[in-house]
């Protein structure tokens, strides 16, 4: 009883250090040990691409905490290069090995916190072990990639044509790496098995990123997967690998020659230790935990990318490998393990995430139409385009905001946003509303900051809520950007100058301001869709039609801007 | 019965145009007329300072809608320079005068929407009518001020010493004008009757703006009010005023010589028409309305700066002269007046507001400690300082965030934030949570965007929530920045280098990392306050003390950074 509580933590990154420091604050006299199998107990994993790209110049900035700093401030006993091999739940011990000394030992615990994280998925394919086929997950990976990129980009502007890089995977890491490698002067090709980047987003939203990538000379290969590499033998005196890859081979048979290949095709949770200890795993393969982050063994906690959190939109458990939830979970687990105090529970997670791709920011929270379909959730959605601050103040940039909601309860379920500025703010506001169970009406009534440099009296968030409420109240009907318009009367209300750049086949052109005087050009009894650039004028026009005897009128959500993205091959006249 | 509904709107700005366009969308066949006594039916009133300052170069950008554009798109009948003189509720008519033709007429209404706005308060003082003593509320004011500023600043860098401007009032308009005039090269003095700018904020928060203003050579005169002007006769062939002010005379007797004087001392609601029609006014002098913006006459609505909204933190009606609520109210009134459809109600207002002052952004939502005291609401508060995105990514800027909450229910009641970036985002998120009745625990659990350029896995919002929850759970106790520390054992846990720049008198210095080894330097039975730079290390240290037999330990909230602002005259050793 006089022995202090002993809290052992497996893994420093992905919530481990967060758990340890919180445990210390709650329990000054506990014996707290972190075991980390790699060299670094804590590092800025989200910052790694930006060190490779040169934005974060100083490598030491990636090392946010060291064993020394954690001992000095928190009296944490940090053991790096020390791997936990197994858990003995009966005796409440773990066996560990020190990779420097090769010495194995057994350590007693009262509470054990697992923060094993996840590892990059590396397919079993020819050439995968080549010295220039690399994943990015830790500092060692970063050093390895950066060394190659530095050598490649040092050839300079007067040198030979830029060296080639292939990035496999269009998720967050893939996009960040594509951007950073292009910024370093490499010729980058991005390969993604799906027909779009960020498959959680809706296609026409992701299409805006495709344009941005192409505008920065990143080549895109969609709908094709990696099957292996063509290789050539390596001078092993120069390298720890026997092969160098010369080209990526795709399922279609296409080969992509390059000098560097980055794999960003996802992660798998590190659950071997949990499995060995017979801890429960969930349906998505992560460790099952309760709201205190306890596994089915109440003395063993698990946090970070290896566990399943409750996903708010479906209220089911799933893996969500994001840093925010990992940090919050670590803190909660550390607090609970170290104390018998009343604790705050882990809240459900929305999967709020954001990525910068050159001049654009893109992100999402909660459900997209894509993920709603996958999870079998019935949603309606609207898309608006509005400036991030008032248009009359210099520097206004459009935000495209797609809102997803439950058409029955009017609860907001998700948002996707893309633009050059202010995207993260809108996502965070909507994420907050969703997490508190808010409705469209509450979204429309939000009292947000406004001064010309920061927003508008009617923020894009309000505009999206107003638009959705118009649909809910029957004042408007919206068709998705990719809707089948065949057989419909198509009314295009843009100006003549806009029309000159192309109009949907068969559309009737009447500028919105002339509509009231030219209603006789249209057939009121026909199902009608109104089209403009972004949807704003279309809505004005549809209200005119609906109040002039037109019985079935809809707007094309997001207008021609989103239509072109949703159906890029549609013929215009 | 076959006659269309007739909706008359008094005033185009401050919600009037918003009401009119919404009314049209709901009712295509209504007869909708806007009467505007000034020259412009709608203009960017929040943009006026930035046109004077030259950021918005093109004056036409201020005119967001014109009678022509409103007719073309919405078939609105806009009559500028036409003033409404009286309302006859019995006969449902108004009498109007056209200031061009001087013709008076009577107009029938079915629904009447009042959007009369508010007018600058102009004290009855000697010299107040001088040609260089000006308020800023409309386009004519803007033209007048800009003409003088253009003349003054055209003297250039090689010319005589900068001409002087005095801005009276440290509210939003006063701050924006001080910034813009300084940017134009004028020597600006800001006069405010209170001891701080933005009197709704807490003093130590506003003090950060004082530093920013002084760093940009704006002179500050606090606790002194305007009583009049010294004047000199004017060449009336050059001016429409007989006098030119040469100095502002303050209550203290101090005189401030200057060439231009801007009054920004608040607004009073334009309620004469409402009073004449015997519409109810509320306790704060604004027109009383219900959630549909109806006055006590259900056929007369009122919106904008002349009405009282429900203020969420107190659930009482008060005037809140902000553009966001005015626009939303206009939209709701227009919808209700034009239709018999189910409508969304006006939600309570938080007073969320933001201002840029040179390199800083400052804003607030809900209650500050100051306003809580004024309204008799019991609140607790915490202050944290955290970077707007991860520190390891270039360009991180600290945000100072003060959170106000109900210590009994743990509901969040308000936030104030100041920093160089990301301030509006944090305020909007917290405003959203407050509007949905959220608690500290919900704030701590928010799932927000994170990537290095946009935030941190633990956002400043989370840090503030964690800190407040520590207080709620008894893990920490916080003293306000201006607390009386006399008689307390003061422990300063900063480094020796930090201490060298000054320490509170009588403080004991032990760096946080050495504390556990030097506890014997302290008396555990004494009430103890722990001090560091911003509060972060102080909290770590206080946890050490609380778990080592110290019975009464508190942290100084916001550390020495906020202490110096709260008590600038306190002697350091």
What do you see in this structure?
Two copies of one chain form a homodimer. With 573 residues, chain A is α/β, with parallel strands linked by helices. Chain A is built from 15 helices and 31 strands. In chain A, the strands form eight sheets. A five-stranded parallel beta sheet of chain A has the order 3-2-1-7-19. In chain A, helix 1 (16-26) packs parallel to helix 8 and helix 6 (203-215) crosses helix 15. At the A-B interface, helix 1, helix 3, helix 8, strand 22 and strand 23 of A face helix 1, helix 3, helix 8, strand 22 and strand 23 of B.
Secondary structure blueprint with pairings:
The structure is a homodimer of 573-residue chains.
Chain A: E1 6-10, H1 16-26, E2 31-36, H2 48-52, H3 67-74, E3 77-80, E4 82-88, E5 93-98, E6 104-108, E7 111-114, E8 118-120, E9 133-135, H4 139-153, E10 164-168, H5 172-183, E11 187-192, H6 203-215, E12 219-222, E13 226-233, E14 243-250, E15 255-257, E16 260-263, E17 267-269, H7 272-276, E18 287-288, E19 300-302, E20 307-311, E21 316-319, H8 323-338, E22 353-357, E23 360-366, H9 369-375, E24 380-387, E25 398-405, E26 412-419, H10 423-435, H11 440-444, H12 460-472, E27 478-479, E28 489-492, H13 496-499, E29 508-509, E30 528-531, H14 536-546, E31 553-556, H15 559-566
Parallel strand pairs in A: 1-2, 1-7, 2-3, 7-19, 9-16, 10-11, 10-16, 11-12, 18-20, 27-31, 28-29, 28-30, 30-31
Antiparallel strand pairs in A: 4-5, 5-6, 8-17, 13-14, 14-15, 20-21, 22-23, 23-26, 24-25, 25-26
């Amino acid at each position: 009883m006089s022995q202090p509580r002993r809290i052992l933590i497996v893994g420093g990154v992905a919530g481990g250090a967060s758990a340890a420091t919180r445990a210390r604050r709650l329990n000054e006299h506990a014996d707290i040990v972190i075991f980390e199998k790699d060299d670094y107990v804590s590092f800025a994993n989200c910052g790694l691409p930006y060190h490779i790209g040169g934005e974060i110049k100083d490598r030491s900035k990636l090392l946010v905490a060291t064993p020394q700093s954690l001992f000095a401030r928190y009296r944490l006993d940090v053991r790096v290069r020390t791997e936990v091999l197994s858990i003995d739940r009966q005796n409440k011990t773990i066996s560990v090995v020190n990779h420097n000394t090769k010495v194995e030992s057994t350590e007693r615990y009262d509470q054990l916190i697992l923060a094993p994280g996840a590892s990059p998925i590396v397919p079993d394919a020819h050439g995968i072990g080549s010295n220039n086929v690399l994943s990015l997950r830790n500092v060692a990976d970063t050093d390895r990639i950066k060394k190659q990129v530095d050598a490649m980009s040092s050839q300079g502007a007067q040198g030979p044509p830029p060296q080639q890089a292939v990035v496999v995977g269009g998720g967050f890491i893939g996009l960040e790496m594509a951007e950073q490698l292009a910024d370093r002067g490499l010729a980058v090709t991005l390969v993604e098995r799906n027909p779009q980047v960020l498959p959680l987003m809706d296609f026409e939203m992701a299409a805006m990123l495709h344009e941005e990538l192409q505008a920065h000379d990143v080549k895109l290969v969609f709908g094709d997967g990696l099957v292996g590499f063509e290789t050539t033998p390596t001078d092993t005196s120069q390298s720890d690998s026997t092969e160098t890859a010369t080209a990526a081979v795709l399922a279609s048979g296409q080969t992509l020659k390059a000098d560097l290949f980055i794999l960003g095709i996802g992660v798998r949770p590190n659950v071997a230790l949990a499995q060995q200890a017979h801890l429960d795993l969930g349906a998505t393969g992560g460790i099952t935990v309760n709201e205190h982050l306890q596994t089915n063994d109440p003395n063993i906690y698990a946090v970070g990318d290896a566990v399943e959190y409750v996903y708010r939109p479906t209220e089911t458990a799933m893996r969500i490998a994001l840093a925010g939830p990992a940090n919050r979970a670590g803190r909660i687990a550390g607090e609970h393990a170290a104390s018998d105090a009343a604790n705050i529970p882990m809240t459900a997670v929305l999967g709020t995430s954001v990525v910068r791709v050159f001049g654009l920011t893109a992100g999402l929270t909660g459900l997209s139409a894509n993920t709603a379909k996958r999870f079998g959730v019935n949603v309606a959605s609207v898309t608006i385009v509005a400036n991030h601050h008032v248009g009359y103040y210099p520097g206004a940039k459009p935000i495209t905001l797609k809102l997803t909601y439950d058409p029955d309860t009017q609860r907001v379920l998700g948002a996707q946003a893309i633009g050059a500025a202010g995207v993260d703010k809108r996502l965070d506001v909507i994420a907050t509303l969703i997490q508190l169970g808010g409705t469209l009406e509450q979204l429309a009534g939000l009292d947000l900051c406004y001064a010309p440099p920061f927003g508008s009296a009617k923020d894009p968030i309000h505009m999206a809520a107003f638009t959705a409420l118009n649909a809910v109240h029957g004042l408007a009907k919206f068709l998705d950007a990719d809707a089948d318009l065949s057989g419909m009367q198509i009314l295009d209300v843009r100006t003549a100058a806009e029309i000159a750049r192309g109009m949907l086949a068969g559309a009737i052109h009447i500028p919105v301001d002339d509509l009231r005087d030219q209603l006789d050009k249209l057939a009121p009894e026909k199902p009608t869709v109104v089209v403009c650039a972004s949807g704003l004028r279309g809505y004005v026009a549809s209200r005119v039609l609906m109040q002039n005897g037109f019985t079935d009128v809809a707007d094309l959500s997001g207008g021609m801007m989103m239509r072109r993205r949703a159906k890029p091959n549609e013929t215009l006249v």
